[in-house]
Amino acid sequence: MPYTADSRRYDTMTFKRCGESGLMLPTVSLGLWHNFGEVNVYENCRAIVLRAFDLGITHFDLANNYGPPPGSAERTFGRILKTDLAPYRDELVISTKAGYTMWPGPYGDWGSRKYLLASLDQSLKRLGIDYVDIFYSHRYDPETPLEETMGALEAAVRQGKALYAGISNYGPETTGNAAALLRDMGTPCLIHQMRYSLLDRRPEEGLLDVLGEKGIGGIAFTPLAQGLLTDRYLHDVPDDSRAADRYSFLSRGSVTEDLVGKMKALNRIAGERGQTLAQMALAWVLKDPRITSVLIGASRVEQVEQNVRALGNPGFTADELGRIDNVLGDTRITGVDSPEEMLS
Question: CA-CA 20 to 30 A from 18: which of 196, 217, 292, 335?
């Protein structure tokens, strides 16, 4: 049956300006890091993406190596785009990245101009489109001059293969330096994608300040700590959860008795707010004005629907924030940023 988008898709989604740019992003975006590869059921992937769009999620985030196997998430999304979303292309913000290992040899990894631009060409072919809206350097490359990496992003924009340039997983100092270089080139850095959640607050150690100073939007990935900040692990590790999935980046060992106790305490606070734990965790990340959007992942349509409801109660009282901090103390789970880190 041909897909027709819900005419009410913009009625409830909130949009926020990305940094000092003219681009508005939905406060909830869909990331295809996991659950959209060849190992996953295509019809389920399609249902998740289309339901997300019907709920006003216009931003879909990919990378060259998302799958598994690498590249397959872009092919999956490209198929959905061709069969269902092509009439709505101008309503979509599609992003992709390059920076982690994609093919053998010295030209398929890190941040050289050769790798980034070749990877972007491959991504466009897999997606079946002429341009992406945002092209990211996926990680800082200490062995390549920053001028070369940023020059590749600028070239992608100048060539019409990307509309905006972004960076991901850069520290505060390199973010500031990268932003200065891009601005001098005439292609300001639009956005920084970072790991940020109640369980990983490293961006508060200088990065968010740099984003505010430079007028760069922030978008948080794994805001639910790969599912730990949901009700899935309040009692045990379900067989169909990420912690039980051999293709996942989360292990059973992450779900400790101490952590479960803290998640239960947070869940009680969320309940008092009329939210699930996941909804409160998303709202907590979005409370910072320097955060433009949160990237959610999903393995079921219902998860998208539930997560979008986080927008129903975005504010926090000082008492609630204090209680959340008291529960967590110094609990931190930094996780991994790539398949390579997981394997190592």
Answer: 335
CA pair distance 40, 50, nearest whole angstrom: 16
Quick one: tokens of 5? 């988008």
Distances (CA, A) of 310 to 122, 125, 259, 283: 36, 35, 22, 6
pLDDT, one tens digit per residue, over 174-190 is 999 999 999 999 999 99
Output phi, psi for 291, to 5 deg: -95, 120
The H or E element spanning position 155 is helix 146-158
Closest-CA residue to 184 (of 150, 235, 157)? 150
* Alpha carbon separation from 121 to 6, 22, 88, 135, 189 (Å, rounded): 32, 26, 22, 11, 21
Q: Which domains does the chain have, with CATH numbers?
A: 16-343 (3.20.20.100)
Q: What kind and span of H or E run contains 118? A: helix 113-127
- Give the Å distances, CA to CA, from 222 to 169, 269, 296: 13, 21, 7
Q: For residues 284 and 316, what is the distance between their CA atoms, to the nearest angstrom?
A: 8
For 24, phi and psi rounded to 5 degrees? -100, 135
Contact 195, 153 (CB under 8 A): no
The position carrying tokens 């993406």 is 49
Report pLDDT digits (tens) over 140-153.
999 999 999 999 99
- Determine how many CB atoms are found less than 10 A away from the CB of residue 87: 11
Helix (H, G, I), strand (E, B) or coil at 29: strand
The strand pairing partners of 166, in sequence order, are: 136, 191
Q: Exposed, middle or buried: residue 232 (CB in 10 Å: 0-12, 13-18, 19+)?
A: buried
